[in-house]
Amino acid sequence: MIMVPEPDKEARATDMPVKKGGLNDLEVVHYAYKYFQIFKGLVVDNIFSFRERNESREFFKERKAEDALRVIEVELNFIYEVLYTKVQVVHSIWGYVFRVIAFGSILASLGVFHFVTEKNGLNQFDVGVTYTLLLGAIILDVIAFFMLIFSDWTFASIKDPDSDKGIIAMIFKSFLHFKRPWWRIPVCENGCHEHNVLATPILFRRWSGSLASYNLISYCLKSHPSRIHKFIRWPRVISQKLGIGWCYKIVVGVIKAALIAVKRFLSCLINILFFIKGKLIAFIDFVVQKIMLNIPGLRYIIEKISVAFVYVRTYIMGSMGINDLLDQILYVYREPFTKELWEFIFEELKNKADYADDPEAAKRISAARGEWVLTDSDTKIDRSSLLQYFVGGLHFW
């Protein structure tokens, strides 16, 4: 193994001093881009130096939970876009050139079709479809152009926003302000404590803002899980801000009444179909029983065919992943990310980081699971009496 000495800190052009206190919106993007450039090697199991590790740890020790969340979500957004999108191609010189050429080609096609092409002998429906396709392509390119301008990659390239007091800088700062985490207090079911949940509007969010949950008890009992938080919809919030909440209530009332009527109709239709199905199955069973009594050995053949059909169905559903897909649809549900949960996670990580003074201690803490809680709690309590309940729980599952 060849040990290469670490470069001096001044040799890195991307180094930024660790700022004390809160971060503004552009600093969040800059720090996230810096750590993205450093730690993107984690995807391929790269090993980093102690200086980079200590620098990252000192940075997050100085941060509050919300600022740390903002930096992390921007950094993860960079990683996601590099892995799963064409962002690095789009934000290159050739990407800009090809995008301009493509947009110009669409405009030229629309101009030629509108001003040059003789459309008297063409079907009007075909003409309308052509206009729709060309205008749709232009609209999509315009949307992509605005997404390109207001992406985090563009903000990461802005060096000194305070030196520019123009309208462009004001627009950029306002857009970054809207991309901050939005916290709201939803209606909680079952009388649970109120939580601040992440409810950033979909146009400004960098990730889904929710966590997938799998309820093992619901899966074993074959019951559908229920959500904990009930969201206040954004149209309702906007209507209340505009002072037209009464209009929103009327529209929602009409929609709910229509949905209830449709639900009742479908319920009656399903009951009728189930009744017909029961009668049909009873008739088929009666006919099969009569035939089986008159033909010896037919029962044995039908039973073997049924067993083979069940086996083939189980094999096909298992090999194609249909069972897992159905389990995900029925028993996996998403709950919004809560501010209290993140603050708890972040404070626990900061406390553990205080003990990770060397790589061995950091590895031991990272590999710890429940024993960390037992070590950190009162060890004088006799837990041997809980062993019987633990064994009983294992037998139950």
Question: What labels would you give this structure?
Answer:
single chain; 397 residues; mainly alpha
Task: Trace the largest sheet across and list its strands.
Answer: 1-3
Element-level helix/strand string = HHHHHHHHEEEEHEHHHHEHHHH
Fraction in helix:
55-70%
**Distance linking N and C termini:** 48 Å
Number of strands: 6
Poorly predicted residue ranges: 7-14
Provide a count of the helices. Answer: 17
Q: What is the average of the pLDDT values?
A: 79
Which word captures the global form? extended
Biggest sheet, open or closed, and with what strands and sense?
2 strands, antiparallel
Helix and strand content put the structural class at mainly alpha
Strand content: under 5%
Q: What's the gyration radius in Å?
A: 31 Å
Task: Give a structural overview.
With 397 residues, the protein is mainly alpha-helical. Among the domains are: 245-334; 341-396, no CATH class. The protein is 65% helix and 5% strand. It has a two-stranded antiparallel sheet. A two-stranded antiparallel ribbon has the order 2-5.
Question: Would you summarize the structure shown here?
Answer:
With 397 residues, the chain is mainly α.
Explain the layout of strands and helices:
Blueprint: H1 25-39, H2 50-61, H3 65-84, H4 87-90, H5 93-116, H6 124-149, H7 152-156, H8 167-178, E1 183-184, E2 187-188, E3 197-198, E4 210-214, H9 216-221, E5 229-230, H10 234-242, H11 245-294, H12 298-319, H13 322-331, E6 332-336, H14 339-355, H15 359-367, H16 370-376, H17 387-396
Antiparallel strand pairs: 1-3, 2-5, 4-6
